Amino acid sequence: TCCLALASMSTATPTAFAQQLPKGISVTQLQPGVSAISADSGNWGGESQGTSHQNQDLYITEKTLFVPEGALAGVREARLRVFMALFDNSGGKNGLDESFVLTINGKPHVIPTNDPSLPGAKWQWHDITIPVEELRTGNNVFSFAKSHSEKNDDYLYIGIAIPGSYGLSRMSLDGGKTWSTSSLNTIKATGEYMVQLLLLKES
């Protein structure tokens, strides 16, 4: 799904939840009935320090976002807004033909890399519609990993915003056995993954 034409985060209005939020979490009203939960500066770090470089299933990126009490009341649709790109590194032999797994609070969703709604090689914010019923009050954990493949030539890139690190992003290179919040890619980038949650309420 392409991003909604919403007000920019810089002009959005803070909501009444601000007093009860953990460090780094912001809840803003983008327009009537649409709120965004985020924990990043919005300043992309670029194609080296500003991204994951995921081409196999052991490389996991994870983002935790806090949903305040009452924020899910009346929500009819939820979207994960991700600054991302996908690249085929087969040299043109097979194109994007693998998949990645978006896991929401422990529930996996397999997404083909050639899904026509995805941004492909163009870096951009992309909205992924997710089940409202899989969200909960408090911490919500979203992770991204490539599905197992014999080729591993499709690369998933999740943007990293700099500066600012709140411990809400972490990376694993061994399938989740060990994690790092201080090194968010294989070249030791710091910051926060650019993953945000949009909540759309009944109009």
Structure description:
This protein has 203 residues and is mainly β. The protein is globular. 0% of the residues lie in helices and 41% in strands. Strands 1, 2, 3, 5, 8, 10 and 14 form a seven-stranded antiparallel β-sheet that branches. The protein has a five-stranded antiparallel β-sheet with strand order 7-6-9-4-12, with no helix packed on it.
List the helices and strands and how they pair.
Blueprint (H helix, E strand, L loop, with lengths): L12 E2 L11 E6 L2 E5 L21 E8 L7 E14 L10 E6 L2 E6 L11 E7 L7 E9 L7 E5 L1 E2 L7 E4 L19 E2 L1 E7 L2
Low-pLDDT ranges: 1-11
Task: Please state the CA-atom Rg, rounded to the nearest Å.
Answer: 16 Å
Structural class: mainly beta
Structure annotation, total helices: 0
- Shape label: globular
Strand content: 35-45%
Number of strands: 14
Described by its quaternary structure, the protein is single chain
Helix content: under 10%
- In round numbers, the mean pLDDT is 91
| Element-level helix/strand string | EEEEEEEEEEEEEE
Largest sheet: 7 strands, antiparallel
Question: What distance lies between the first and last C-alpha atoms, to the nearest angstrom?
Answer: 20 Å
